[in-house]
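FORM 12-B: Structure-to-Sequence Request
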């Protein structure tokens, strides 16, 4: 009798080879062979899970920490509330445009997929390249550092938190998100639902007592709310820029279209319900802030939610940083769940290494696509000042979102026969597209250095496209190295091509 190998590496090789060759492979503890179960991403995103992905990703640390940017640039309490509402409506316009794209192009990948369909592979690769090397690692690093700061604050107050402790906590947070997304789609979605309800609970802890104070007659801070003496028209675009940044995240459901159950119905419903909830929460939260704090107090505060809790709730304010940390964690989890599918689709289209489009033989997760951002994100957490990245990240984000919605308008004329189960009036994408490009031009005017850096980073995608994608006749040594890299990772990660 031959002794069975106990080497994990050899077991991994055997699992991959048997799954690839369709040899029946029984799941440990089960009776159903892998041959009878397709190795693919299932349709596990229901309406509730779709809503939790959108809300849980949009509502991060911003609404709890510093909405003062809108107040500062709008000049008055009344105008700041108008900006919050207007940004919610504009974000809804963008979300509805993406809902049309998601129901007529039923592929995951979000921005990348829609640019690919409308404008071809080169433009899509440039977007992917900017995401991979700059936008996504920077965004993930920033939200994880906010998580590290606020998860440690209740434990170490009133002492200052050492910067290295924040970075270590951030790294632990990122690692746990990566692990969760690697292990189970179902549990990732379930935990996202829990985190979404927890952050809505945190917002209700602010809204309910604030509304109670308002109904008691605490309205003195709203007197002369629309005093326009401090308002400058030149600063209003900056207020809208801050507001649109706070609402960013409504597009993440489009990254997982192939996993959405009944996307024709689920995507428009999830988007509309989510945007109504988020806009209502944002406006009511700001009304609650202004009920308790004057405009001057809000502008002087570094953490608005903490200041609000200290003035109204006393010792209970210690719980606020914990809720902010949960909110950040939800944004990290939802965002990474969606982003991994973009890399998965890009690999399937031949724009990234083949192993990124493979699925774990037991977990049915795109393991390599989940892990691809991990090294760059950890690097950005531990080295340098990453907050400057947010300036050109915002420039690139709105530039490419504007290009996506422009693609929707373009395809109305170039592909008129494309089935559109959900179709929005043309003025909605037109208004939103003009808004995006206006914010891009504003960035070029107000911060030309960082906007220029962002533009230069995206342009490096052009030579990368021709070197890695366009030229089919690569040197044999390079092709051999790439094939060996794919095979090695496939064995280590125990992944196989999706069916």
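FORM 12-B RESPONSE
SEQUENCE OUT:
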């Amino acid at each position: 009798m031959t002794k069975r190998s106990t080497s994990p590496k050899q077991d991994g090789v055997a699992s991959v080879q048997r799954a690839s060759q369709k040899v029946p492979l029984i799941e440990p503890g089960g009776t159903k062979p892998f041959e009878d179960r397709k190795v693919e991403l299932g349709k596990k995103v229901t309406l509730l899970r779709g809503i939790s992905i959108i809300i849980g990703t949009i509502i991060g640390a911003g609404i709890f920490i510093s909405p003062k940017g809108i107040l500062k640039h709008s000049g008055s309490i009344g105008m700041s509330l108008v900006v919050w509402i207007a940004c919610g409506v504009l974000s809804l316009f963008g979300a509805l445009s993406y809902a049309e794209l998601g129901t007529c192009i039923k592929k995951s990948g979000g921005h990348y997929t829609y640019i690919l369909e409308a404008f071809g592979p080169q433009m899509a690769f440039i977007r992917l390249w900017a995401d991979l090397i700059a936008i996504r690692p920077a965004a993930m690093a920033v939200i994880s550092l906010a998580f590290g700061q606020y998860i440690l604050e209740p434990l170490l107050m009133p002492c200052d938190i050492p910067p290295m402790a924040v970075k270590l906590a951030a790294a632990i947070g990122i690692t746990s998100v990566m692990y969760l997304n690697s292990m189970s789609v179902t549990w990732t979605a379930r935990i996202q639902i829990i985190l979404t309800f927890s952050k809505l609970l945190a917002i209700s802890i602010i809204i309910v007592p604030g509304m109670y104070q308002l109904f008691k007659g605490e309205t003195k801070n709203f007197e002369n709310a629309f005093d326009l003496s401090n308002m400058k028209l030149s600063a209003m675009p900056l207020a809208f820029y801050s507001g649109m940044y706070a609402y960013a995240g409504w597009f993440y459901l489009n990254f997982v279209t192939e996993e959405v159950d009944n996307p024709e119905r689920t995507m428009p419903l999830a988007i509309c319900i989510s945007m109504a909830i988020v806009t209502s929460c944002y406006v009511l939260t700001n009304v609650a802030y202004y009920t308790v704090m004057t405009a001057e107090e809000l502008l002087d505060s570094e953490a608005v939610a903490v200041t609000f809790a200290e003035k109204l709730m006393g010792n209970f304010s210690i719980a606020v940083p914990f809720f902010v940390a949960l909110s950040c964690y939800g944004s990290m989890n939802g965002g990474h769940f969606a982003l991994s599918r973009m890399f998965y689709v890009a690999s399937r289209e031949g724009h990234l290494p083949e192993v990124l489009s493979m699925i774990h033989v037991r977990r049915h997760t795109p393991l390599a696509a989940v892990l691809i951002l991990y090294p760059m994100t950890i690097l950005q957490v531990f080295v340098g000042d990453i907050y400057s990245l947010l300036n050109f990240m915002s420039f690139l984000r709105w530039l490419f979102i504007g290009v996506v919605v422009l693609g929707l308008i373009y395809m109305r004329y170039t592909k008129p026969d494309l089935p559109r189960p959900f179709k929005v009036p043309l003025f909605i994408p037109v208004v939103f597209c003009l808004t995006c490009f206006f914010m891009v031009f504003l960035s070029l005017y107000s911060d030309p250095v960082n906007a220029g850096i962002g533009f230069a980073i995206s342009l490096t995608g052009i030579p990368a496209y021709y070197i890695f994608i366009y030229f089919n006749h690569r040197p044999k040594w390079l092709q051999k190295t790439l094939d060996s890299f794919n095979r090695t990772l496939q064995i280590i990660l125990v992944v196989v091509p999706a069916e």
